[in-house]
Amino acid sequence: MATEYHLRIIAALLLILCLSGPGFAVQSKKRAAASKKGHHSALARRRQAAKPKSLAQTAPSPERYQEIQQALMSKGYGPQAPNGVWNAGWASELKRYQQDQKLEATGKLNSMSLITLGLGPKRPQPAGAAAPAPPQPIGATAPLPRTNLQVQAQPVREPK
Question: Rounded to two decimals, what is the model's pTM?
């Protein structure tokens, strides 16, 4: 009886081994080469992605400098007519503008200065949409919007 039980287990294991196909225990040479090659190329991609990219900002173009200079001139700042060349005179005018706007006065172009000048990031606007207003400088308060809601006081009822 025990031998019949053992024979059935062995037969079941052989059946499972035969039905699982040739890839059960041995991997084909082509498949092994392909997986190895894929592993190496994936490793190469990871190494390439790990290379540090330059995070340095590039200097604005002369056209962008001229835009900034025109915006400063329209607000009453600027040592000369806009010409697309950034120099110490423009840097000192920018610093004065930053002080007047209660921004960090460095004399260097930064995002908040550009935004308050109305020269923030260029994003495509839907047709007919108005450009959003620039944010208020730190410390400035905007008036609260008026509403048509009226609040009426209700008498407080005491529990019985």
Answer: 0.45
